[in-house]
Each structure stands twice: as structure tokens, then as C-alpha cells.
Design brief:
CATH superfamily: Peptidyl-tRNA hydrolase
Number of domains: 1
Radius of gyration: 15 Å
Oligomer: single chain
Shape: globular
CATH class: Alpha Beta
Helix content: 25-40%
Number of helices: 7
Order of helices and strands: EHEEEHEEHEHHHH
Number of strands: 7
């Protein structure tokens, strides 16, 4: 079984915040896979489906970003999902908007959601880092991630989330380099 986890903050006021691009990515996956039911469990929303022959769990924690690791650990422990079968979709200021970088393991690079996950399950899982670009000169990182995408940026976000969904079978095969290069070529 594979877990696809989207990071973000709960609530309508955060829906289009840059910090919520992980939620937006898994929402697009749910839409494209035509998943009708999401259940409230483990302090989040959980869906089940298949991609090819692989069973997947899609999860969005209802905890705020800084504390999402505990609910994610509950899901992965309950379904006995190995860390190497966990894929976390999240925002990254060091990646240009509309681009992705993927890596297995490593540090949090100051991302509080990743730090929370690391503390609860360890570091050996895949991170799909979706670009949100750098803050403007007079803006802090915290302001930038909690700011909404502009209309132009929303177009890039829609495109990258669709490209992620179309390339999921490559991700399920754990070919991280091919997955990211395919998405980045389509932008």
C-alpha cells in the first residue's frame, strides 16, 4: 500500500495559500481518479483508490502544518505503510513556481510540516517539493507562504497539479528523477 499525503492548513481562508499547494495537488489526484468518498479519520480526510495494481491511501491532515506529523503517523501505522511507500506533497520556496523537485529522505530545510513528519515517522520517505517561488523583497517567508496565489500563479498551479496527476504511475514505480523531469518539461 502507498500513501499520498498532501500538506496544508485547514480552513477555507487558507485554500489558495501557497502553503496549501500540497492539498491542491492531492485534491487534483482525487478529482482525476474520480474518488467520490473521503472519510474523516485520523484527524484528517482519507480516501482509498488504486493506481494500476497498487492500492493507495490519500490523506490530508486537518492539523495545522506545524503539527501534521502525528496524524500522518497514525495513518501510516494503522495501514502498516512503510516509510519508503510514503509520498508527501508540499510547498517549497526554493523551487520556481510551477516546477517540482523530488527527493527521498534528507532534512526539512526549515519546512515546519516536514519537520513535524520527520519527528513522528523519521526521514526516509519521498518528498514532492512543489515550487511556490521566493517572497517579494518586502515580504517574510511566513507572509509569503500564507499569502494567496495570484491569478497568474493559479494557472501555473493548475497546470503543475494536473501534470503531477498524469505522471503518478511513474511516481508509483519510484522513478523520482523521471517523474520530476517529465513534469518540469511540460511546464
Amino acid at each position: 500500500m502507498i500513501a499520498l499525503v498532501g500538506l496544508g492548513n485547514p480552513g477555507k481562508q487558507h485554500l489558495y495559500n501557497r502553503h496549501n499547494i500540497g492539498y491542491l495537488a492531492v485534491d487534483e489526484i482525487i478529482k482525476q481518479l474520480e474518488i467520490d468518498s473521503q472519510k474523516n479519520r485520523f484527524n484528517g480526510k482519507i480516501s482509498k483508490s488504486n493506481i494500476g495494481r497498487k492500492k493507495i491511501i490519500i490523506f490530508k491532515s486537518s492539523d495545522y502544518m506545524n503539527e501534521c506529523g502525528y496524524s500522518i503517523s497514525q495513518v501510516t501505522n494503522f495501514f502498516k505503510i512503510k516509510n519508503e511507500d510514503i509520498f508527501v506533497f508540499h510547498d517549497d520556496m526554493d523551487v520556481d513556481i510551477g516546477k517540482v523537485k523530488v527527493k527521498f529522505g534528507g532534512g526539512s530545510a526549515g519546512h515546519n510540516g516536514i519537520d513535524s513528519i520527520d519527528k513522528n515517522i523519521g526521514k526516509n520517505y519521498s518528498r514532492i517539493r512543489i515550487g511556490i517561488g521566493r517572497p517579494k523583497k518586502n515580504s517574510t517567508g511566513a507572509e509569503h507562504v500564507l499569502d494567496n496565489f495570484s491569478n497568474d500563479e493559479k494557472e501555473n498551479v493548475e497546470k503543475v497539479t494536473k501534470n503531477i496527476t498524469e505522471s503518478l504511475s511513474i511516481l508509483m514505480d519510484k522513478d523520482l528523477d523521471l517523474f520530476s523531469s517529465k513534469i518540469n518539461q511540460q511546464q
